[in-house]
Structures are given as C-alpha cells and as structure tokens.
Amino acid sequence: MPSSDAEPPAELTIEDVRHLATLARLGMTDAELEKFRGELASIIGHCDVLQRVDTEGVEPTNNGADLLNVVAVDAPRPPWPLREVLANAPNRRDDLFRVRAVLE
Amino acid sequence: MSAIDPYLTLTEAAQGLRDGAFTATELARAQLGRIAAVDERVKAYVTVTRDEALADAARADEALARGDAGPLTGIPIAIKDLIVTKGVRTTCSSRMLENFVPVEDAGVMTRLREAGAVILGKTNMDEFAMGSSTEHSAFFPTANPWDLARVPGGSSGGSAAAVAAGEGIVSLGSDTGGSIRQPGSFCGCVGMKPTYGRVSRYGLIAFASSLDQIGPFARNVQDAATLLQAIAGWDPCDSTSANLPVPDFSAGWDRGVDGLRIAVPRELFAGADADVLEATQAAIDQLERLGATIDREQSLPSVAHALAAYYVLAPSEASANLARYDGVTYGYSYTEGASMWENMEQTRGRGFGDEVKRRIMLGTYALSAGYYDAYYKQAQRVRTLIRREFAQVFDRCDLIVTPTAPTVAFRQGAVTDPYQMYLNDVFTIPVNIAGLPAISVPCGAGEGGMPVGLHLIAKHWDESTLFRAAHAYEQSTDWHRRHPSL
User: Fold this and answer.
1) Which residues contact B112 (CB under 8 A, 6 or more apart)?
2) Which of B91, B118, B214, B438 could form a disulfide with B457 if both were Cys (CB 3.0 to 4.6 A apart)?
3) DSSP, res B314
C-alpha cells in the first residue's frame, strides 16, 4: 500500500463544515460535523498539490467525450406511465406529488 | 442439472446451449442453485430475480428452438445495482433508493434483453459507486470469494465476486475511477472499462458523469469482448455516447502481440507492493517473449496529480448529480420535520451513508465561491495535461501496461482512513481522467495466494487492440483458469 504522506490539514473550521452541510442540504449532528471536518481537511490537504502544477495557458477539459452541442432529435416519445411513476412517490395525493409548503 | 459447471465460460455456455447439452432453463436453474448454495457467504447479490430469470430463460429456449439465437441468448448475467431495471428495484446499495423501482430499462438493459440474456439479479456495490471495497454498501459488505475475510474491491465488488464465485457467467459493472478493473484484479477475473462514450450511460445512475462508463466482467478476454460487443454503440438517449461505428472487437486477434509496442511508464508503478510488482514484471516479460516490443522510455509526469484532480472533479460532479435526492418524487423521505427544509436535510442526512456525504461536501467545497478556480478549474486544467501526455505516449506506442492496483485484496476493515482507501485507484484513475479504454486480466498470485491483475491501456476507441493483447497474454498463461474453492 502506498503511503498517504500526511500533509498538514488545510484550514477548515467547524463553521465552514456547517456551511457546506447547509449548502448541500445534509442534516448533521455536531459530532458528525467534527468527524467530517478532520477528514475533509485531510483530503483537501492532499488535493492542494494541484496548486503547485504549472497550468499557465492550459485550457480546462470539462467533458469526457470531446463532443460539442449535441442536439437530440425533436421527436415525441410516449411518456412514462403516470401510475408507475407515482408508485415511487413517498407522499402523494391523487395524481400529484405532495410536499410541505415552502413558505409557512 | 447440478452437473452443469458453474464456471462455464460464456463461449462454452453458448456452445452447450446450441448443441443441446442443456437448455437455457437448466442453465438458469443451475446458476440460481449456485447462488442459493454460496451467496450466503459471498453476499454478491442485493436482489436475486429468480422468477424473471426463469421467464428470460424460457424465452431464450424458444429462440434457441427457432434457431434464432445470438451469442448472449440464454446466458445468465448479473447486473450492478446502479443500472436501472424496469420493474426490478434498483438501490445503488443505498438507503436512499432501497425501495426504488425504475419505470424504464437502462440502454444497456434494452440491448441485453434484445440479445436474449438471462438476468440473474442485481449486485452489491459501494453506495452510489463511491468506494473501493464494497464495504460502503448500506446493506452489507460483499466477501472476496478467494478469502471470505477479504474485500472483493469496489465499487463493483458484487459483480466481480459473482463472476469469481460462479454466480453468473458474466456481469456488468461501472467504472468511474477503477470500479471495474480494481475488483476484477482483486477477484481474479477480467474487468474492462471501455472508451468514454462507447457504451450508453442512459439509465446508469450518475456518480460523476464525465468519468462514468459501464463495462463487462468475465472469466476470460473473449467473453468480455463478446459482452461489450452486445452493449456498445450509439444511444440517442445519452448525449455523450459516441455516434461511431462499433468495430468487431475480436478482429485481428490471430496476430497476437506481434508488432505491438507497449509502454511501461515508471510513474504508474510507484507505490505498488513487492508481490504485485513481481507478478506485473513477469507478465511484461511474457508479453515480450510473445513478440511485443517493450518501451521503458515513456513518461507520464502529470499522472502524479491524477488522484488529486480526481478527488476534485468526481466529488464536484457527484455533488451536483446527487442534488436530485430530495425525498419528493422517489426514494427515501423523512417527513417528521417542522419544515420543508428540515425534511430535505433529514432525508439526505439519513438517506446517504458517510462516504457519500463526504464526497458531496468535498464537491460542494470545490465548487463554492472562492475555491472554484483554485480547485475545480485547476483540476480541469490538470486533466488536459494528463490527456495530452497520454496522447503523446500513444503517438509512439499501441498500449500502456501497469499493475491494476497497488496491492492484492486487503482484509475487511483494514483500511479505515478515507484517503488511504482512495489510493487503491492510483493506477486506474488516470485512465478515467483521459477517457481511455483499459482492461485488467489475471496475471499472478500475490500475498496469501490472492489474485493480481495486469492493467493494459489503449488509445481512444481502440478496444480491439486492447482485447487482442490481453487475449494473447491470457492464452499464454493459466491464471484465468484458477477458481476459488467455496
């Protein structure tokens, strides 16, 4: 097994992690936040090696296929059967998904 | 019927079906019997679709009787549980999708059904394909059939273990950073990742869309090529699938490795254990004896940064892809909260396991204001450098050879540090970053007699040369004929 060369952890406070959890809508306890703080700091520390790579004038590659502007044929297809789609709904009323009010 | 060898190759099984040595129904029953006998110990399957498999087999028998059989007609196949199957629950080994029943088949499933394959069931994996040991399944870990105390690798550990344990003639996995090749190496079977865009990702539950690709597990290279032949090709439902003709992947195999130039870049050997290096070196010597030219002068300096780039790019894409799990239209839903936001946070906090949450947070960090340029954009630039260096090597060479993984299969629970786990994929990740095709073939026995895999990498769209060399190597050894005793 190669060594993971523990690098110094990046600065990451418990408030930073709480903010990330809020952005990602992940409900977490304080104990979880603390556990993730240490782990994320370590992983980010390893990824910081990227900052030392000279990429002056290098264009980013943002997709795996070298494809641009793929256009689908604009042809109708039969929709998914409503009953089967709604069968997966955790909460429904009649033929609708039921959700809590966004503004209460 | 119990006389049917569970370790038949696809080629042998197809021959047996055509010759009437057994029917598809008998073959399916034998495979289901094998699952019943060993899966309590191996735990490769999340769902066994016994009734559906027997119905598939009955249809295959009709096709065989009509003389209308293709290479996959009646062949029992296991499917990684992140490829959606109409009417059969597809869980991603996550609490989030524990009861999710897709309304449609993935593109590859449509092709397999048209080809007359028999679907045995859905295999276990690291949750949402995030992991290298199948210990991150929300349900249970899968065991390595060679040593039940060890991991099968991951994330497609269930599909690899199924083939290694005789619980499926072949199987499908998915590979985002090594998730087919590393478990193939750990379980002593062939595992192959096609060129990005070769196989439709339609209905492959997304982890990192610019890296994900479906591919085959098999007992030999011929079987892997036959399965890929059936699932490859353009799919208008996947805008990143390539609208290119699919060549005959078995063409030119009679030439062996004669005339092939194979690069051995030193960067893709650093950190491998001694037993793995020894087996890999012996395989390289064998390729040379078979007539390949070995080139030790090639270098890929930027692959040293591939792991770091991957752990920015893949989590970033995952954090966006997994935003859809909100507990509204399907999947786990927490409903006891005081507000819509609390329900959503609890749905995601309780529905996802730790590794998934870790990667979503990592991706959210890399994409957030102030860090986007430093991490995400910089990782994309490093990706360009890596692709460029691979292209330079492929200007001079036909293939690249490396070990598949730095170690043999480790013991369950032995790797607890997340980053240490990520290092398992240090040789496979650069291939996904560059979108190249690659294969792992058994090439030896390391510590504890565990299988070692040889990793061959080809240029874009050149699966034929990849298979050709892998087949020539394999047929000159007996490693692929070894099976675990269960």
Assistant:
1) B72, B77, B119, B230, B231
2) B438
3) H
- Identity at A79, one-letter amino acid code: P
pLDDT tens digit sequence for B303-354: 999 999 999 999 999 999 999 999 999 999 999 999 999 999 999 999 999 9
| pLDDT given for residue A6 in this prediction | 41
Strands B170-174 and B76-80: parallel
CB contact under 8 A, B330 and A99: no
Distance CA B163, CA B170 (A): 6
Task: In whole angstroms, give the CA distance from residue B216 to residue B424.
Answer: 20
Q: How many residues are present in chain A?
A: 104
- A70–B407: do the CB atoms touch at under 8 Å? no
Instruction: Please indicate if any CB of chain A lies within 8 Å of the CB of B244.
Output: no
Instruction: Evaluate whether B435 touches B195 at the Cβ level (below 8 Å).
Output: yes
Contacts with A7 from chain B: Cβ below 8 Å:
none
Tokens at A23, concatenated: 């952005």
Are the C-beta atoms of B59 and B70 separated by less than 8 Å?
no
Q: What residues are paired with B451 via a beta bridge?
A: B445
ipTM of the complex: 0.91
Q: Give the phi and the psi of residue B239 in degrees, each rounded to 5.
A: -70, -15
Per DSSP, helices labelled H in B265-305 are 274-289
Amino acid at B252: G
CA distance B23 to B57: 8
Q: CA A38 from chain center: how many Å?
A: 19
